[in-house]
Amino acid sequence: MLLHRSSWPEIEAFLTRSTSVVVPIGSNEQHGPTGLLGTDWMCPEIIATEAQKDADILIAPTFNIGMAQHHLAFPGTISLRPSTFIAAIGDWVRSLAGHGFTRIYFLNGHGGNVASIEAAFSEIYAEYSYTGRRAPFACKLKNWWDLPEVLGLANRQFPVGHGSHATPSEIAVTQWAYPDAIKTANYAPQIAPTGPIREALDFRARYADGRMGSDPALATPEKGGELVATAARGLIKDLAAFGAEIAP
Amino acid sequence: MLLHRSSWPEIEAFLTRSTSVVVPIGSNEQHGPTGLLGTDWMCPEIIATEAQKDADILIAPTFNIGMAQHHLAFPGTISLRPSTFIAAIGDWVRSLAGHGFTRIYFLNGHGGNVASIEAAFSEIYAEYSYTGRRAPFACKLKNWWDLPEVLGLANRQFPVGHGSHATPSEIAVTQWAYPDAIKTANYAPQIAPTGPIREALDFRARYADGRMGSDPALATPEKGGELVATAARGLIKDLAAFGAEIAP
Amino acid sequence: MLLHRSSWPEIEAFLTRSTSVVVPIGSNEQHGPTGLLGTDWMCPEIIATEAQKDADILIAPTFNIGMAQHHLAFPGTISLRPSTFIAAIGDWVRSLAGHGFTRIYFLNGHGGNVASIEAAFSEIYAEYSYTGRRAPFACKLKNWWDLPEVLGLANRQFPVGHGSHATPSEIAVTQWAYPDAIKTANYAPQIAPTGPIREALDFRARYADGRMGSDPALATPEKGGELVATAARGLIKDLAAFGAEIAP
Amino acid sequence: MLLHRSSWPEIEAFLTRSTSVVVPIGSNEQHGPTGLLGTDWMCPEIIATEAQKDADILIAPTFNIGMAQHHLAFPGTISLRPSTFIAAIGDWVRSLAGHGFTRIYFLNGHGGNVASIEAAFSEIYAEYSYTGRRAPFACKLKNWWDLPEVLGLANRQFPVGHGSHATPSEIAVTQWAYPDAIKTANYAPQIAPTGPIREALDFRARYADGRMGSDPALATPEKGGELVATAARGLIKDLAAFGAEIAP
Amino acid sequence: MLLHRSSWPEIEAFLTRSTSVVVPIGSNEQHGPTGLLGTDWMCPEIIATEAQKDADILIAPTFNIGMAQHHLAFPGTISLRPSTFIAAIGDWVRSLAGHGFTRIYFLNGHGGNVASIEAAFSEIYAEYSYTGRRAPFACKLKNWWDLPEVLGLANRQFPVGHGSHATPSEIAVTQWAYPDAIKTANYAPQIAPTGPIREALDFRARYADGRMGSDPALATPEKGGELVATAARGLIKDLAAFGAEIAP
Amino acid sequence: MLLHRSSWPEIEAFLTRSTSVVVPIGSNEQHGPTGLLGTDWMCPEIIATEAQKDADILIAPTFNIGMAQHHLAFPGTISLRPSTFIAAIGDWVRSLAGHGFTRIYFLNGHGGNVASIEAAFSEIYAEYSYTGRRAPFACKLKNWWDLPEVLGLANRQFPVGHGSHATPSEIAVTQWAYPDAIKTANYAPQIAPTGPIREALDFRARYADGRMGSDPALATPEKGGELVATAARGLIKDLAAFGAEIAP
What we know:
Creatininase-like_sf (chains A, B, C, D, E, F), Rossmann fold, Creatininase/forma_Hydrolase (chains A, B, C, D, E, F), about 5% strand, hydrolase (chains A, B, C, D, E, F), 8 helices, globular, mainly alpha, Creatinine amidohydrolase/Fe(II)-dependent formamide hydrolase-like protein (chains A, B, C, D, E, F), about 40% helix, homohexamer, metal-binding (chains A, B, C, D, E, F)
């Protein structure tokens, strides 16, 4: 069930069946010469949309701009600074918690978001912790590649050349969902270099075409389809476990 | 051209042809008993996506959560507070301006966003105004219903019962785009009341089912299609005029 | 009754008769070659001060610095950025609401303030909306030229050359109140150009002497006196209606 | 010369003669059973207005709301929180410095403002200090009672019962300026108690009628007139010294 | 008792005996050619640590970075801007008050901190004042040199050449505590100049070696020991008085 | 070399030899029934202090309060919220970078700090990334337990019962440094439970005595000494590698 294609009475009704909600969250940032700028928000959106076809779960609109300051030297990247990102996540959570959602599950598509999302959770929880109140909700962050069985599959699909940015797995997912938008290029080197992440010009100086450690040529729509199916099953399972947690 | 389905080299190439970009912006909020929660961000997204099929214009990802504090008493609404919204718009603009975009055009789908978006523009401009520098970019806000010829069409389509929230015109647009998500209800009264907008519980007390002044039963997918076609043409034209402006 | 020329026991007593308060709010910014820098905060102050002579209404001190970033390239302009303005309005409202005022009426003298003031109201209301509480007060924004019968009078007084900044109507109001400060100049062109508003240097490049669309030579103290009298009556009436509203 | 009753060309001309500006700054807060709520912003405004009659100095509009959180339990008090106050002072200073003012002199009327104003100066200076740039302006805070010869006069006028809040000296100043607004009461005790300042309810519990250590019955308009004349002379002198400072 | 060398059950037990806590607070900033960069946070830490040997009082960890923007042109200085400092003090106070501490005593070692610390107290109190609640705690700021009998001793020890920054008294305290870190230099002039404090480059231009009005050559470890002993006794006494206060 | 026991000329001299600086950073929070509240800031301070005895490296004062909102239900915990923490780290970095430090190395002692510290780095870098400038410095975060060879040693020392909070390794480090502050208790259960981390009351409900997965009884001062020696060597090595990095 997609929240944004529902009416409010439908959400009111859903809340009598479940108080869990999934927020796909990612980033809009360069993904090398062939990856889509939207890759990191599309992947969790694709997976969550697929999962809700098979289970009575609720998917919120996609939080599509994240923390990508290090990619800003490549055109098309849009980034929030961490402080803005934290404030925005807070307002999403306050909105959803206000409706009675008690399990707010962020399905993340961008490694660079992790620190800010976790900081955002602590920022929200702190409102309760400083004042000695119990929060009536819990937040959870899960990267889609950490869903059950996904990493194993990706390792089998891409034993070498997976890397950490503009990876063949994420590109495969978008190829499966948007076959009309598949792009090709000659990669030089075939497998991109690796190293630290700092500010944007430093990043572009280190990683000339934007990739980190990856060979996107390995991606295929078929592999993407397998990843989506596996991740969707994993999401349903992981969300069920989160929903079944008993508060201490 | 959709920015998020492009690669960064494609955006780099686009910037040699044009430095204008369209950001669909809206809100995720209750739209009465039958309107989709996503109506306000879907409408500009639908129109912009349609427009880029006919013209070489660039559409950014949709800014889908806006200022909807007054709708928070209805489940499914997600709102940023104005200060968060202003900060986030600022980061979007800084990101896009950093790539060389000089015309940043927000196609808006939610009246409640207008004040915060305009305040955001002033907040960004002020960075230049306090320091005596020229801003290398200009921002523009346009509500989709204010695009050329759209209001005239809507008035002809809905001479009575248009109202100001959960209007038949916006619902028609989403019906055209998402026919599988058309919902029905008995509206009582047929045309909703009107009045002031304050905080969320006040709003719900005044507007029992969430509508303001509207009769959504008047919406049809066909009328929506006409609105989309007209608005898409208007967007192309209005954006061209914005892009052709000569800075003084 | 002027709040600032009262003692706290007098305000305590007033609150037993009425819980409405008027805050004149404006801006200190260039108003062309002859308009006073204080025009936009003086106008609502003048009108409100006049109104309280004829009715038992309470006028707060004037909020004299607003959002005028686009005028900063002209000496004497003082501006808050929107985020600061929103925070300050919030603190004013919290202070007044804490004393038991339930109707907080901002009589505004600057079009450029509107977005930030409305955003400020939403920011304050959001504190209640996120937490499911009713706000014990309501805020209202009214531009003085939108008070009953004022626009009609101004249109009759200035059928051409009114414009939108450094208008003859606002200059007439200050001429009536401060006849010793009337200034003259040769205007070239007689009626100033119009166009968009962006940052300060862009503004000065477009509007060489600071006016927008206006011919201030049309102003006279007598016309100002008529405007003040009409506006003062309108304020008393509009405030009474606001105070008489029944919360839903 | 009053900035707000001047046009921008007049300010432009003034800047060729002097780059100093005086900002009267105070607070709107309870001043005991008889003191005006506006006392603390009226006093510096009165003194500065008087001073500019005798010298070619420039007086900005009055910053009339300050840091008065401890007075909020008395009706009519309006307070900014320190963070808001600091942000607003920053925007005032940035605006004025942008026009070329190099000496920004705050004539203060409220002891409770001192910490926030000084913190605001440091906040603004820090923008320069972190980046190794010289600030092209200097800020100065002066309480009107600390102007040359004022304290000596006040001590002679009120050898006992001066106190620290709702003092006879500040009340005398407003009596001289607004004789129609003189109020009387029986003070019990005649001289109010003293003690610490914390939050608002604590304050009201300690200081039942709002005074601290003072006997306002000692105030007369005549004494107020002497204070104003002395302070106005002191302001002219102190401002001249500030303007004559040579940056190291 | 040092909070940081205690376990939480020990603090829980302490709270049954006393609800007062001392926070040593200072700054890490240049202290002339021979003073330690840590002087301003070490002094209150040294004094508080000494005091808790003789009395059952609780000392929190040292807040070691304060407001030192004016010293940033000298290497080794670390400064918070006032807004950051205020936010951080707020979080410390909220944490401690949440545990049941009702008397939060800041023993300060840096004059430049005073404005920001007092502003921070008002910022925290305002949360209560705007909402009509009593704060369950009180904050107090005391400079160590203002503790009973300390100033008298310092005046006797250093009748000339004490000055206001890099003073012989504070340097003596650190010499007593860290005799291995005593440094020497030829001071030219022997007694440093005095003047105003603005931004960092202005400061360095005025005060070439960082001192203000002081002759650090007068410091000895013995004098430092006397100061520490006197201040420690004063702290115990002053804290006892604070703890014994009855809320009104 | 300890920055705070140095004078500014000594730091100026150090900067000619090296532009790296180590900031020990931790948290002041409950560490179970026997762990010191200061454990998480003492550990990196102890290790860094030890390391600078053997190498010409510079150690800044300890950043002793971090992000510990989840521990606030245990007395003695002091926490910054993430937004405050990020702002403060930013000011530290700006101060140090302003002096010419190009490698700012945070040696961290608290897992709960990681997200906020990394977010802080991105926040600072973003100032450069949005404006297309190279940052003249790089920040690095290293947990002391991730220094070379430390984890291996800890695994050998504590093959079972290490856990993740109030671990025997961190307690051993403080036992070595502060043998007078060693505390004992009967642990029930001997090895604490594990689970998720949310807000403070949830945390206390899950982890009754504050430990997570650990058996602190395994700690000894001797094991602590081994850990310190190993970590100090690792720090020298890791910092050297960081300092030797060539910017791309």
